[in-house]
């Protein structure tokens, strides 16, 4: 599933939370679950899976949070990044 939103004016994010339930059938090296970007930084905010880890980045990999061994194939998992 893919969607794109192109606002008329740039968004000014000062605080946010991204949450979702996921049930991966397989785990791969990098699966992007959520991505927000702008012209200056196309990867401004990302929530992704890497094997059994969940990663949340803001401003690229400069601000990366990784939680290991939290995602298992065939099992529902609630993920949030704030």
UniProtKB/TrEMBL annotation:
Listed GO MF terms: complement component C1q complex binding
GO process terms (BP): innate immune response
UniProt domain Pentraxin (PTX): residue ranges: 1-82
InterPro entries reported for this sequence: ConA-like_dom_sf, PTX3, PTX_dom
Assigned GO CC terms: extracellular space
Classification via SUPFAM superfamilies: Concanavalin A-like lectins/glucanases
PANTHER family given in the database record: PENTRAXIN-RELATED PROTEIN PTX3
Protein's name in the database: Pentraxin 3, long
Organism this protein belongs to: Nothobranchius pienaari
């Amino acid at each position: 599933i893919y969607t794109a939103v192109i606002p008329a004016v740039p968004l000014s994010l000062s605080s946010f939370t991204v949450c979702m339930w996921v049930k991966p059938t397989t785990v791969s090296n990098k699966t992007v679950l959520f991505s927000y970007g702008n012209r200056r930084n196309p990867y401004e905010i990302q929530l992704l899976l890497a094997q059994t880890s969940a990663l949340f980045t803001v401003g690229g990999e400069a601000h990366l949070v990784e939680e290991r061994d939290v995602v298992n194939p065939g099992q529902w998992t609630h993920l949030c990044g704030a």
